[in-house]
User: Fold this.
Amino acid sequence: MSMLLSLGILGTCALLSWPLGRYLTAVMEPPKQARGIQRLFETTIFRVTGSAAAAEQNWKSYAVSMLTFNGVMFGLSWMVLTVQALLPLNPDQKTALEPSLVFNTVSSFVSNTNLQHYSGEASLSYFSQLFAMMWLQFVSAATGLAVLAALARGLSGRTMLGNFYRDVLRATFGILLPASLVVATLLLIGGIPMTFKGAAVAQTLEGIEQVIARGPVAAFVAIKQLGTNGGGFFGPNSTHPMENPGYFTNVIECMSILLIPMACVWMFGFMTRRVRHAAVVFAVMALMLAVNVGAALYLESAPTAALEGLPVSQQHGNLEGKELRFGTGAGPLWAALTTATSNGSVDSMHDSLNPLTGLVPMIGMWLNVIFGGVGVGMINMFLYIIAGVFICGMMVGRTPEYLTRKVETREMKLALLAILVHPLFILGGAAIFAATPWGAGTVNNPGPHGFSEILYEFSSASADNGSGFEGLGDNTIPWNTATALVMLLSRFIPIILPLAIAGSLAAKKATPENTGTLRTDTPLFGFVILGSVVFAGALLFLPVAVLGPIAEHLAGVIR
Assistant:
């Protein structure tokens, strides 16, 4: 049943991604003679922003605008969290957060990571949730969409990549806001609350007073899922019954994780006029996702030691850390989806997954290209495409080409630098914290699982994911500071460098395709980029996988 439900969710999202990809293209790259609502929308943008959103930008000015905008977001959100006790919409009298936690939280949401070292309902006011956290979930996702659109324009041969401010407005008001309204309405129907009243106070059957947190949850959860943000209104995220009350909301939230990342691949194809190439990339990503989901479901179906003496009919797999209404399948499915797309929300405790099942979400974050985050997933795959094209060109003795532009040493250096930043932050951070009290003193479990908790945290921060092995005591000054820096650097370095590659390729003359050109719309090219991703990931991360999840699994088998 779990496998059938998973196939239904994946298949439905894949079918819906095509028309959604066309819609994304129409919004991000409207025709010159736009009509109706689109024309009114574009006219309003220019009237409100004036020249700021009118001027075309090359890759350098586009990147500067992107960094400036995100810097302003960072500063405003920092102010809100610092003085939230003085701001309205604070019925439960929340006070300011500790400074290193403010730094971590703002860095997390600006970078579209949403790694949470705090519990939302216990720490933040409604004002902070809506006008700092939820606002950042819109504009950080819009940043990814904007940069992907700029990359596609550059690969189409345009030296001017558009205008960042115009693209962010298009993505926010033309895509994310309408989609969030639809999903929030469905979540309201499913029973998720949407209120500005303070926490409810109830009397239990034992006569004990219970305080039940609530708030404007439906709106928050909608963009949390659609923007591959993942930040929960409540600490337990979508394991909390008010963020995910039942099967209906569980399916809606699962689908919302996948839809826009899938559509981004088609948007790239439509904007570059290489739809068959996009289909090959989509197929490679879909294959990796299917393998991840299948592996997670199979590995988590193994019974725990406590069930091994029971008849097979009563061995239901590992139910620890799961919502019992959904069974054992919903947790690993969500774990695979949320880490394949850099979403990071959870509907089970990943720390309770079987050791090898826990490796599956790590693999999703290590590869970081299985559809990935909104916009940035396709950008990350572009880096592996450049690497694969370059290697293939060198093997046959030809100058490598991608979309009729020659890929030379400069582009390859930039691509490799962007690719290697990711494992550097993961492996370097995990090594330092595993060898010092900063990390070793905060794990909840000794041995391989404790190492996995540290490894997972840095994987999540570097992949802009946000999920975690929550046995880790990560709300400390070293953890807050280190992961904040990793989140910011791993967000913006792999965004700026692909823009530089696109600008470099756009400045070159197009090379006519001939019989010796490596075509990008064939199954062979699909194997090239699949091999680039898998072999690079295996070489970089297999040793730490052996030290963590694999060692824990083998210890259990030997015991």
